[in-house]
Each structure stands twice: as C-alpha cells, then as structure tokens.
Amino acid sequence: MARIVGSITTSHVPAIGRAIARNLQSDPYWKPFFDGFPPVHRWLAEARPDVAVVFYNDHGLNFFLDKMPTFAVGAAAEYRNADEGWGIPEMAPFRGEPKLSWHLVEQLVARDFDLTTCQEMLVDHALTVPMALLWPGCERTGAWPLRIVPIAINTVQFPLPSAKRCWALGEAVGEAIRSWPGSERVLVLGTGGLSHQLDGERAGFINKDFDLQFMESLVHDPRWATQFSIHELVEKTGTQGVELVMWLAARAALGEGPVKRVHQNYHIPISNTAAGMMLLEPAA
Ligand code: DHB
Ligand code: FE
User: Fold this and answer.
1) Which of 118, 186, 189, 214 could form a disulfide with 54 if both were Cys (CB 3.0 to 4.6 A apart)?
2) Is 103 annotated in the active site?
3) Tens-digit pLDDT profile for residues 171-195
4) Is the pLDDT of residue 273 over 80?
5) Which residues are paired to 276 by β-bridges?
C-alpha cells in the first residue's frame, strides 16, 4: 500500500517566486525566510517521495468567480502554470498521477464529498511557488523528482468550507492514500497562510500569537483550529489568513496518531504575509 512519508505546509506568496527568479535568497530581506528550507531539502533527499498530494487554493487562474468549486481534485496527466500577472516567470509543467487522482476521487465521493474533478487544470502560485521552494531549480529545468495530485479548496469566494470540513477532507484523503494498492511514497503538501489580509481596512493585518499557537496545535492538539468558524478565522487571521485550512487538511491526512516535528520556520513579513513552514512526519 502507498505510504504517507510526511507533510510539509508553507505560505505561498507570489513575491517569493520573484525572489527565486532573481536569485535573492541571500538578500537580507529574504534570507530569514529561505533559511527555513535547507533542513527540508535534506529531509526530502532522504524521504524521496514519488508523489505529492497538494492542498492549495486557486486565486483566479483556473477557477474564476463565475465558477468556484468548494473542493476540486486534479486528474490530469500534466499541470501547467500560466501568467497570473504577478511578474513571476511561468514555471515548468508538472507530471500528474491520474490513477491515484481517480482513486482519491472515487474514495472521496464514496464518503459523501461533492467534488469537482478536473481533467485539465492550470496551477497557480499557490502550487508552483512551494514546489520551487522545495525543489530549487526545477522551476526552470522541469526535472521535478515527483508527480503531483492537486486538490484545490476554495478560500477565495464566500461561502467557504469550514475548518472542520477541511479537516474531514484531509482525513479522508489520507485514508484514501493509505488504501492505494501501490508502493508509492506520498508527501502531503498544504500551502497558504499564515495570517494575512491583502484588502480592506485591515490590509497588512498579521496575528503572530495566533499563528504560533496554530502551528503548535498541529503537533499536540491537531483539531484545535476546527473549533473556529470561517468568520472567526477571518477575524483572527485576516481575509487571506483563512488559507491556513490547507495546513489543517494536510495535517489531517497524517491521521490521528502522534507526529514528529522535523522542522519549522516562522518569519514576518514576507510581502504582506506571516510566512510559516512546517515539516511533520508520522511518529510511528
Ligand atoms: C500575498 C499572499 C498570498 O497568499 C497570495 O496568494 C498573494 C499575495 C502577499 O502577501 O503578497
Ligand atoms: Fe494566497
């Protein structure tokens, strides 16, 4: 059976993509952020995942406000990026894993999740920037060492799925992965957050206390954030801070057993965002 080797959760700010394109990793503004990644690169070199199942939110590249699925699973052989207007160079395409995608779709629908299945799907900065952070250089060469299954969760247009529902989705995805009759080593990614608000009177809002408590909860009390409604999460973390539900889904995929925190980093600000990163692996 396929095995989940760990979860990596990270922020996905477009400016990070620009910094990568301009080689600014050692620049004083960027260094404290990029310094969070070498331990993760070393872990990945050991863990050698074959597939990444990626929870992320599309920001208008593939889904626009006219058609906005709550949950969408990619089932394509290839996923391309395209210009979103952030000034990031387009990244090399990603290979899909359609058989695993369809297995997840079947298992999730059987468990009453109403999904949109995408046999064609553009992937935006929320997927590409974390991939470029985890496998530096592949954004240019296209030599990504693994295939991907993207899972988009709507955090852009209300009504949004609750944190509790995103936990349940992640949990079901984890069980579906573990029931996949293959020998794949699967990495679960969750991208978004942490606290940030890009618009309105509170633009620039960041809540460090909440972010740190949330990161801690993923280790010791992982359902903690599911007590909050989406509106409470917006209040606590900002309108775009609700992207942290991706972290919950990724954590839920690891299951209820104990987890080991391999590495984490937290740095304020990157652009308008409190940038967090966390690497967990199942303890057993
Ligand atoms: C920023 C953060 C995001 O999550 C995003 O999708 C776009 C921009 C920012 O902080 O600039
Ligand atoms: Fe975002």
Assistant:
1) 189
2) no
3) 999 999 999 999 999 999 999 999 9
4) yes
5) 266
Which residue out of 196, 220, 263, 267 is catalytically annotated? 196
Ligand 1 centre and the CA of 273: distance in Å?
A: 7
Catalytic residue list contains 267: no
Ligand 1 atom 8 nearest Cα? 13
Bridging pattern class, strands 273-282 and 3-10? antiparallel
Between CA 33 and CA 131 the distance in angstroms is: 15
Atom of ligand 1 nearest to the CA of 269: 10
3-274 — its CATH code? Answer: 3.40.830.10
pLDDT in tens, 249-267: 999 999 989 999 999 999 9
Residues whose beta carbon lies within 6 Å of some atom of ligand 1: 12-15, 59, 196, 198, 240, 243, 271-273
86-102 residue pLDDT tens: 999 999 999 999 999 99
User: Relative to the alpha carbon of 196, which ligand is closest?
Assistant: 1
Among the atoms of ligand 1, which is closest to the Cα of residue 126? 6
Residue spans of the domains in the chain: they are 3-274
Name the burial class of residue 149, with classes exposed (0-12), middle (13-18) and buried (19+) by CB atoms within 10 angstroms of its CB: buried
Q: pTM of the entire structure?
A: 0.98
> Which residues are CB-contacts of 227 (< 8 A; sequence separation ≥ 6)?
none
Ligand 1, atom 3, lies closest to the CA of: 13
pLDDT at 8 over 90: yes
> Cβ of 54: how many Cβ atoms within 10 Å?
26
State how far Cα 139 lies from the chain centre. Answer: 17
Q: 């990495």: which residue's tokens?
A: 187
